[in-house]
Amino acid sequence: MKFDIQPASNPTSEKDRIAKLVDPGFGRVFTDHMAIVRYNQAKSGWYEARIEARANFQLDPAGAVLHYAQEIFEGLKAYKRDDGGVNLFRPDANARRFKDSADRMAMAQLPEDVFIEAVEQVVRIDRAWMPGGEGSLYLRPFMIASETFLGVKPSSEYIFAVIASPVGSYFKGGPAPVSIWVSENYTRAAIGGTGAVKCGGNYAASLRAQAEAIQHGCDQVVFLDAVERRYIEELGGMNIFFVFDDGSLSTPPLGTILPGITRDSIITLARDAGKTVREEPYSLEQWRKDAASGKLKEAFACGTAAVISPIGKVRSVSGDFEISGGAAGPVAMGLRKQLVDIQYGRTNDPHNWIRKV
Ligand code: PLP
Ligand code: COI
């Protein structure tokens, strides 16, 4: 699909851009452009692919997304290499997951090559917004149902867009260990639900539990399974791993959790290093016992935004516990370095995960 490229007529000045890049935080600073592709069933599919100035959408108050939340999104990052080039990390995997999300939400499926082209075009036009150092350009492709209609049915019109946000660390403390709150009141996903896809509704439903986590002084919430309310599933916006005294790792199995691309990359890197990685259920009760006995050495959260963040402290209604005295563990930090080095192009990329832009 050919994108019509119309650069912003009034882009941010260099001085303002540099000031905004000093300490961008996460998701508050945005670049000058966006990609847009529209879909209309009656016009036989995707049309009008554009790169244009970032601007408000025009949406009728009866636009389907505003009522029934037919919305999906992705998150991936572009990294500045030392030679000045830019790396994308596994954008093909995001494009595939976006299609799976669209399928589950009865939305139009965007061809994977159009997804990747849109992301690359935004990176190209806004590459001056790439932060230096350990920062990156967070890319947020998303799709909304835009048909003007109040009946409950899949929309026949969609808007796909990609926006970009220069980011630093997701957590204020960078890779310092985070604390998590176990949600025993709320669940995130049930079998047959939407837990395995990246739709906005999953995040809306997680906010009450995340607020509870913050009330308890924690950085993030971790959810239990919806059936037995025993097994650890994932955090509000991250997957989770456990590291044991025999050197093995485990992570909750796929099904009701988001199939994280970072999760998959960590499984691959750990297995490459000869480690055993199990994808199996792990209960809160067992976690508490293993932390107390020393069998559990580390736990860490992982995701595009969070990279790899060690978990130091766990709080719950049934009591709090620490993992390895609340300190960052060597396995989490080693995997983090390995992953980040691949992302920034500082080391070999044995699995061809990097796409240069
Ligand atoms: N789980 C949830 C609920 C998420 O929102 C994310 C972030 O995208 C992840 C896991 C990690 O996925 P990924 O590694 O693909 O970013
Ligand atoms: C990501 O890591 O890309 C996420 O989507 C997590 C969160 C920022 C929603």
Which structural traits does this protein have?
pyridoxal phosphate; amino-acid biosynthesis; branched-chain-amino-acid transaminase activity; binds 2-OXO-4-methylpentanoic acid; Aminotransferase-like; binds pyridoxal-5'-phosphate; Branched-chain-amino-acid aminotransferase
SSE map:
Elements (H helix, E strand, L loop, with lengths): L3 E2 L8 H7 L12 E8 L4 E9 L11 H4 L2 E3 L2 E5 L5 E4 L1 H14 L7 H14 L10 E10 L11 E11 L10 E6 L16 H16 L4 E5 L7 E4 L3 E6 L4 E3 L9 H12 L4 E3 L4 H10 L2 E8 L3 E9 L5 E2 L7 H14 L10 E3 L1
Parallel strand pairs: 1-3, 9-10, 9-16, 13-14
Antiparallel strand pairs: 2-3, 2-8, 4-7, 5-6, 5-7, 6-18, 7-8, 10-11, 12-13, 12-15, 15-16, 16-17
GO molecular function: branched-chain-amino-acid transaminase activity
Cofactor: pyridoxal 5'-phosphate
Function: Acts on leucine, isoleucine and valine.
Write up what this structure looks like.
Helices cover 25% and strands 28% of the residues. The strands form two sheets. Strands 1, 2, 3, 4, 5, 6, 7, 8 and 18 form a nine-stranded mixed sheet that branches. Strands 9, 10, 11, 12, 13, 14, 15, 16 and 17 form a nine-stranded mixed sheet that branches. The longest helix has 16 residues. The mean pLDDT is 96. Helix 3 packs across helix 4. Strand 15 and strand 16 form a beta hairpin. The chain has 357 residues and is α+β, with helices and mostly antiparallel strands. The structure holds pyridoxal-5'-phosphate and 2-OXO-4-methylpentanoic acid (COI). The site of pyridoxal-5'-phosphate has 12 residues, from helix 6.
